[in-house]
Amino acid sequence: MAITLVNPTGLPKIDAYRQVSVASGSKLVFLAGQVSWDADGVTVGEGDLAAQVEQSYVNVATALAEVGASFADVAKLTVYVVDWTPDKMPRLMDGIARAGKRLGDTPVPPATLIGVAALDVPEHLVEVEATAVLD
Asked: Which UniProt keywords apply (predicted)?
């Protein structure tokens, strides 16, 4: 694999992601932010943050697979959450865990969580964008 994930000594170990990724590949893959649409453009889990996180991560995996990649190739995720407050963390983590079960592995690349006022449509609560590296 072109990506090695690291939790450096002296930084906190966070279950949701690793602090650093080292990329040694030469092909960069940039994914548009993925929301909780199904293949027909219908929002999955309206009003349910965990369900939307799950579907968004699954959509990232689907997009990666199209170009021969997987979450193992992801160097960085950015997660945008509408009206973020720390009390939403358990629902976010539940959605990531549910996606991990569906995908066969919990994705833990370095990630940044950004609270936003709104996304593309009012029904969307989360958007996940990824950068991957392939050999």
From this structure: Hydrolase
